[in-house]
Amino acid sequence: MRCHYKRKGKSILQYTVQLELLHNGVWKPIVRYDNAHGFCHRDTVHPDGSQEKTPIFIGTANDTFTWAIKEAQGNWEAHVKRFLEEVRP
Q1: How far apart (Å, rounded) are the C-alpha atoms in residues 22 and 42?
Q2: Global pTM value
Q3: Is 3 helix (H, G, I), strand (E, B) or coil?
Q4: In whole angstroms, what is the distance from residue 22 CA to residue 34 CA?
Q5: Which residues pair with 14 in a beta bridge?
Q6: CB neighbours (10 Å) of residue 83?
Q7: H or E element: which one contains 60?
Q8: Beta-carbon neighbour count of residue 28 at 10 Å?
Q9: Among positive and negative, which fits the CA dihedral 50, 55, 56, 62?
């Protein structure tokens, strides 16, 4: 999991939480949470590189950043399973 954020004082201005998988010798993103594009959302990344954007409304950017870290840590196995099931032989 990679996390990156920019803050001013105690407020998160920008954040990214990205869960990655080492697949065939290459690190690939499988799910990403961020507040790019002006809103908090999850990008579900597929093996072909396509993505699905899902808005997330948790509260402040601080709250959503914390939630995203916990969600990725708590559900990493499900995210990996979904990605690997989508891999075409």
Answers
A1: 20
A2: 0.90
A3: strand
A4: 21
A5: 6
A6: 20
A7: none
A8: 14
A9: positive
